[in-house]
């Protein structure tokens, strides 16, 4: 389980992601990597890191989630988890059709596997 003091919510807000990143990095033992729940929120993280005069990934690595276009266009480019939207859509439609046909669903939990797209924001630190 993660240390709960390092798990903060930002309510899908760029501004809150910025504020929470400042809070994380002000901790007595700040993290050396931050995982954001979306690439959009990672941009708030980027802003806070720059505001503190820190550098990505030299001082802190950043990883986003959903691999939006901004991930490859940001500087440094953002490491992100790519989601299989097509598979997600297909599985959702299959479940919906099962419900429409009044058949029991075996499970409402649908599992899809994303792929980690490694970019500049999470490269190894120099030893």
TrEMBL record:
Superkingdom as given in the UniProt entry: Bacteria
UniProt KW keywords: DNA-binding, Transcription, Transcription regulation
Family annotation (Gene3D superfamilies): 3.40.50.2300
GO molecular function term, any single one: DNA-binding transcription factor activity
Transmembrane segments: none
Pfam short name (any one): Peripla_BP_3
Domain Transcriptional regulator LacI/GalR-like sensor: 18-122
PANTHER family reported in the protein's UniProt record: LACI-RELATED TRANSCRIPTIONAL REPRESSOR, RIBOSE OPERON REPRESSOR
Protein name: Substrate-binding domain-containing protein
Organism this protein belongs to: Vibrio aestuarianus
Upper classification of the organism: Bacteria, Pseudomonadati, Pseudomonadota, Gammaproteobacteria, Vibrionales
